[in-house]
Amino acid sequence: MNGSCVRHTEIPGSSRLFLDFLYDFPRVKSFYSHDPSDPDSLKIAVAEVQYPPARRAAIVEALRVTNPNQPALDLLAQPNTVAILTGQQVGLYGGPAYTLYKALTAVRLAQKLNSEGQPAVAIFWLATEDHDVEEIRSASFWDAEITAEAASDARPAGLHTLAGLPTDLPLSSEIQALAQRHYQNGKTFGESFLGLVQELLSPLGLIFADPLEPKLRQIGSEFLSQAALLAPQLSDALVERNKQLTAAGYKPQVHFEANETSLFFLFEDNHRKQLKFNSKTYDAEAMAAHGALLSPNALLRPVWQDWLFPTAALVGGPGELAYFAQSEVLYKLLLGRMPLVLPRAFFTILDEKSSKTIDRFRVKYSDMLHDEAHVAQTLAKRLVPPDLTESLNQAERTLNHTFSALGAKLETFDPTLARALERSQSKIRYQFAKNHSKIVLEMLRKNEQATRQAAHISHRLAPHGHLQERHYSLLALLSDYGLDFIPTILDNIHQGCHDHHVLLLG
User: What is the model's pLDDT at position 434?
Assistant: First the structure.
């Protein structure tokens, strides 16, 4: 393995729910159906799939509209084939790099099942129904950010038209040509995204599902009508689940209030109208009658998706894993089962310049995945003369030992004096840390090269404190490393690292 494997406990901003899901599953097992760390979970999830032959045949034909000449559909048509699902919003220029990592994680898992004799396909759900265009209209490259002229309204984001795109992109000629084949002013976000990722990933057998495709919606209308009839029960279950999550110390990803938060939207003239279940808008029967015109909210959508397909496993990021902790109650009520939920692969691609600096300073990769101030201070600490650092540490150790011995005697003599000593010790520790920081900052001020190196590392690995994979467009990585970047990532998924893989590529 090139690079390093970093536990998510060392990644800034990791939620407690996500960390417990990965490293202490018994704490969250009541919110999920399968333990992702149990090697038998996938086999159990596969065995639980009960998928009607008539729906399978209809789905395969509907998917041929979006996936013409895709051989994987012939595999999906077989009676015992299961699906590995993932998906993403239809972002500008393919969205952030983790879009690629999610897709390839699903592809890798499907490949694994096939190699073991269990037929499987990977399916990518295009989140064209989402309405928040502000989340998808910008793309960040290494030294530029491009934003399309679009604003959120009641239309699904996938139907918004691209405008304001430049003629030249800060990419290699090959990747710029790829982008411009698909992203053109006048085309929609949905068709542009599909064209790009389909060119890149359909050769790997990845199937794409667009919920705005009429044939797919028509098949799914049965589920949507059934869910609408159960809207009061579903709402109550979600309210109760949010209480359970809160009681367990977790923050629900989606705020939900009965009779206030919508489980459904209604398509009218390509616009989404929010439907609330109460006597003033639509009752259950009225909602159910809309069938294929219904659009599920973020919590109901994955359940609909896994009714449509023979899903054995879902691949998602930290936010999606938190969604599923809420959606689990809907799965039970509507499907009677929940697929195995698995985290996607996580990557930070380490360039040669950053790698040389990290090696020279002998710092941890995890410290380089913070904001620039943290990176700079980490490098500067290595510039402080070792004898000075040792003198500071020795003085602090001596002081702590002295205070500890004195505190033990005061505890038996007068506990109030012992508490006062603790407060004094805390103040002295603060002053030690403050002086150490001043020394570090002075070293950084005197070393302009270290400042530049810190800026470069931060810019490449964690711009503005955000992980590279969440900030930069996947095209930025393809521009640097070429189209061979895709098989390279596929080969490195979970090869020696099931956490966050800092991968060195020359």
Answer: 66
In this structure, what token pair is assigned to residue 25? 């599953």
- What would the mean pLDDT of 301-317 be, rounded to a whole number? 97
The yes-or-no verdict on residue 280 having pLDDT over 60 is no
Structure confidence at residue 277 (pLDDT): 62
CB 121 within 8 A of CB 72: yes
| pLDDT, tens only, 410-446 | 777 777 877 877 777 777 776 666 666 666 666 666 6
- CB-count exposure of residue 449 (10 Å: 0-12, 13-18, 19+): exposed
Q: CA distances (Å), 134 to each of 89, 151, 246, in order?
A: 11, 6, 29
Mean pLDDT calculated for residue range 12-38 = 95
Q: How far apart are CA 150 and CA 189, in angstroms?
A: 10
- State residue 274's pLDDT score: 77
CB 371 within 8 A of CB 458: yes
User: What is the domain partition of the chain in residue ranges?
Assistant: 1-363+467-506
Q: Of 3.40.50.11420, 3.40.630.30, 3.40.50.620, 3.30.450.20, which CATH number belongs to 1-363+467-506? A: 3.40.50.620
Burial class, 239, CB count within 10 angstroms (exposed 0-12 / middle 13-18 / buried 19+): middle
Cα gap 357→421, rounded to integer Å: 43
> How many helices (DSSP H) and strands (DSSP E) are in the chain?
20, 13
This prediction has a pTM of: 0.88
Distances (CA, A) of 390 to 386, 387, 393, 396: 6, 5, 5, 10
| Spatial separation of the C-alpha atoms in residues 105 and 119, rounded to whole Å | 17
